[in-house]
Amino acid sequence: MTIFQAAGALLSLIVVFGMLNQRFLKLPETIGITTVGLLTSIVLFVFSYGNHAYVALAQETVRRIDFADVVFHGLLSFLLFASALHVDLGKMRAVKLPVFLLSTVGVLISTAAVGVGFHLITLSLGHPVGWLWSLVFGALISPTDPIAVMSVLKNAGAEESLKGKIAGESLFNDGTGVVAFIAFLGLASGATEFSPSNIAITLAREVGGALVGGLLLGFGAHRMLRVLEGPALQVMVTLAVATAGYSVCELLHVSGPLAMVVAGLIVGNQGTTRELSLASKEQIFGFWNLLDELLNLVLFGLIGLEVIALSFRVDMIWVGIAAVPVVLASRALSVAIPLLALRNLHRTSPHSIKIMTWGGLRGGISVALALSLPEFHGREMLIGVTYLVVLFSLLVQATTLGKVIRHLTPCAPPPGTLATIEHEERSAAS
Fold first, then answer.
1. 3-state DSSP assignment of residue 154
2. In the Cβ-directed half-sphere of 198, how many Cα atoms lie within 13 Å?
3. Cα dihedral sign for 319, 64, 395, 135?
4. Could you list the pLDDT tens digit for every one of the 430 residues in the chain?
5. pTM of the model
6. How far apart are CA 179 and CA 159, in angstroms?
7. 195: which residues sit within 8 A by CB, 6+ positions away?
8. Percentage helix, strand, coil for the chain under 3-state DSSP, each rounded to 5
9. Which of these, 361, 359, 384, 358, lies nearest to 371 by C-alpha position?
10. What is d(CA 118, CA 319) in angstroms, rounded to the nearest whole number?
């Protein structure tokens, strides 16, 4: 099967999944497509019981799609750039200190807490995973997924300041999470020795280099958008930033995802808000809004299908179920400590910690990191548990986040109404 044929089959499946979701489940598109993909995988296993040839064929077909490569070298740059492009930088500045602490200190707290908790539960269930590999799991599962978070927050009904914290944290915490993942992976695999200086250098290169690279890409695109005429060529400039810019960052060993976030914030708040015609603005934002929605459907469809290629054992399922409360408790701890430390400097609503804990969604990035793990005893366990935690996050947390927000803040009207807009404006003004 050629790449073109595989892409055609994948897109056709996603269309079918979308139709089934709209007809029967009526869930938000991204979550619904993941659910239908998961149900399709389960149905395939059930109806192919006793005839493993069909399962083997389906597994081989899905395995031909390198999920980690598709995410990190295909979808991620576009999705992060698109998400950042639509973020209001002025509102983000109002929560910059909480966002900074949550996306750095918070991720490290969660990594340590998940690592300890995961090691203990695997030990107690008779399937021990070593301390270092448990910390690797903590690092890959701790960053919240900006793609999942941004798609759900659109209709969650949260107040504006809380939205800013959740969205901002999810956009920026990938850099910290990936650096922690690389550091602990090197220690666990024996490729590197523990050294605080090495970790500090890696963090400075990945994060510092990404900030500089993102600024150069963003302001460079801003200058080109001012000079060039014609919406088509201007859209091409933004595409070049998300493709060539991301590739250059990877060649320089700096965080491409973080660079895309910085570049998207600058272009969205500088390059396309001044000196451009209304037609150009509509073309640029319209194009990226549509591309964002299309690629989200592809990513969540892949998440639903990927279960076909995984080998779930009973012990793995029990460990995954036990890992869910560990991840949630660690998330609560990683949110509570930074926010409580800032309580005298930054106003926080009474239920922020609860909402941010439940709104800390995991998605394709965690799955991609897990699938990129090298071969070792326990690799399948870590991949399977990661997938189960991600499924819980998408199918339970994401679908109930709006209800949780409305339950904890009953004065907030349902999302999508005029009252919601007025409520958010009053919250932002206060």
1. coil
2. 11
3. positive
4. 677 887 888 899 899 999 999 999 988 888 899 999 888 888 877 776 656 676 777 777 787 788 999 999 889 999 999 999 988 888 888 888 999 999 999 999 999 999 999 999 999 999 999 999 999 999 999 999 888 887 787 777 778 788 888 889 998 988 788 888 988 998 898 877 777 777 778 778 888 999 999 999 999 999 998 888 888 999 999 999 999 999 999 999 898 999 999 999 999 886 556 667 888 888 999 999 999 999 999 999 999 888 887 877 888 999 999 999 999 999 999 999 999 998 888 777 778 999 999 999 998 899 999 999 999 988 999 999 999 999 999 999 999 998 898 888 876 555 544 344 444 444 444 4
5. 0.87
6. 31
7. none
8. 80, 0, 20
9. 384
10. 9
Q: How many helices (H) and strands (E) does the chain have?
A: 23, 0
The amino acid occupying position 227 is V
The domain spans of the chain are 67-429
DSSP 65: S
N residues, the chain: 430
Query: What's the CATH class of domain 67-429?
Result: mainly alpha
- The two tokens of residue 327 are 């991840």
User: Tokens in use for 150?
Assistant: 């941004």
Burial (CB count within 10 angstroms: exposed 0-12, middle 13-18, buried 19+), residue 197:
exposed
- Tokens 């892409």 sit at which residue? 7
Amino acid identity at 350:
P
- Interaxial angle between packed helices 278-306 and 76-85, expressed in degrees from 0 to 180 and rounded to the nearest 10: 140
Q: Are 180 and 117 in contact (CB under 8 A)?
A: no
Q: What is the dihedral of CA 95, 101, 104, 109, to 10 degrees?
A: -130
| 253-to-146, 173, 225 alpha-carbon distances in Å | 21, 17, 27
Q: Which amino acid appears at position 30 of this protein?
A: T
